Amino acid sequence: MKNIIIASTSTIHGSGYLEYILDELSILFNEANSILFIPYARPGGISHDAYTDTARTAFAKINKAIKGIHEFENPVEAVTHAEAIFVGGGNTFVLTDQLYRNHLIEAIQTAVKSGTPYLGTSAGSNICGLTIRTTNDMPIVYPPSFNALALVPFNINPHYLDPDTNSKHMGETRETRIKEFHGFNPQPVVGLREGSWLRVSGDSIVLKGKLTARIFEKGKTPYEAEHDTELNTLN
Amino acid sequence: MKNIIIASTSTIHGSGYLEYILDELSILFNEANSILFIPYARPGGISHDAYTDTARTAFAKINKAIKGIHEFENPVEAVTHAEAIFVGGGNTFVLTDQLYRNHLIEAIQTAVKSGTPYLGTSAGSNICGLTIRTTNDMPIVYPPSFNALALVPFNINPHYLDPDTNSKHMGETRETRIKEFHGFNPQPVVGLREGSWLRVSGDSIVLKGKLTARIFEKGKTPYEAEHDTELNTLN
Fold this sequence. Notes:
2 copies of one chain form a homodimer. The first copy, chain A, is of the alpha/beta class. Helix content of chain A is 24%, strand content 19%. In chain A, the strands form 2 sheets. A 7-stranded mixed β-sheet of chain A has the order 3-2-4-5-1-8-9. In chain A, strands 6-7-10-11 form a 4-stranded mixed β-sheet, with no helix packed on it. Chains A and B meet through helix 7 of A and helix 7 of B.
């Protein structure tokens, strides 16, 4: 049975790394003593070791040990035997590329579908969707595919941002970009604002946090979903 | 001899399409009666016809005819025989994908290197760099490669935006994204603010417009280039 948290961000403004969601993580990971951390997305280009230390410090507060996947000789086996998995944020292209290079797409899908608890934040949440085609990140590497883990039947847009009506900048708004996405892709997109997350338990996918989420369905006007809404019918 | 304008944007705030740069375009295109427009980037998902009409209206003001490349049976021949080329903005991934599918990368390179004047705005400027790996756009389609036209020896980041020091949003700033780019790519990046453009004449590449540009070189602190600076040494 799937047991997943898909969080828009690791950190909300004015709060420490994972601090806002630590109580939820105690529940998600209640049967795990040790969590396998996948640091491939390397935010700001930091090393796998430095990133893993950040995760380690945060999870020490709820008495969970962290092991970085790069510390294992065989990453597929590390995933297969993991008690729990956490994929951190950073660059979605770098993350996806490394998952393919290390043959981890199927390994993670299999583990999560058989019940290994999974936490994703930001890029680690993007890859829970059908594809990474709604990432906000810069395409700094060329992955072998944009297909992602497909742990939910739609796409995710983390760090969702409402249009700034005072802006004089002419770059596209997030809403325009997602509208363009639907010119070429059929699946719904969930725009998750910072501080929101999806709680997946088996076939249930519920929006959590205090905010609404923006839902984009092809051919429909975008709309808001209230928190505690069940989103498993979205596909 | 190369004769190119690489503009950050087609439109600056409070002004019509191409209006701010029309005098420059009269000079760039002074020997052309007709301009081949490449509407593949489809901003907001509009049709090739509708987008071509927008370009047609703007260029009528300086008495230039516009033909959309989609009106030709053979796009490669259309490029080869064009008096001038304009590649409009929109989604860089969609644009790049269509250029590859229509076998236009080499055709455009050959035409521009033999002197066909070229205007790019936004996505049409992104593709003038070595790769599209510094685009701001959403990867809504998967192109066969991120390699671009390489008309200049560096990468372009159009619509360059300075960090908003008042923001409470935790998504990466543009500067952070380009720093991450340099973790995986060696080439310099020119961050072109809206209202700026690069004027390429043969081997010369000069920054034009009233603003400075932000230059990112791997391993160096980013710095500002003044307008009228020669950037051909950047590689």
